[in-house]
Design goal:
By secondary structure, this protein is of the alpha+beta class. It is 22% helix and 25% strand. A hairpin with a 5-residue loop joins strand 4 and strand 5.
Length: 108
Amino acid sequence: MTALSAIEPLDGASETEHCHLRLYVAGHSPKSLKALGNIKRICEEHLPARYQLEVVDLIADPRLAADDEIIAVPTLVRLPPGPMRKIIGDLSDAESVLVGLQLQPKDQ
């Protein structure tokens, strides 16, 4: 995992239809890997072709935490467009993640 890596391209979705997410992790720790797997699953199930996910490894470059004021990992950040929102934890509860990030699932 690099310090910053983009995952899941937008597949041509327009700016207003997609959500830009950034997941801050600590290397290959169990919580970080679980959060990454969970957010990928949530996005594929509820936001296919409507999201961009970046993964920031704070073990590789801890200075990157200052950008979004990260104090714990894993942390998921929703970036503009739309409201900036943060969720800390392993992202196990898909409904809570979608509500917390103010995202609309594909089927709504």
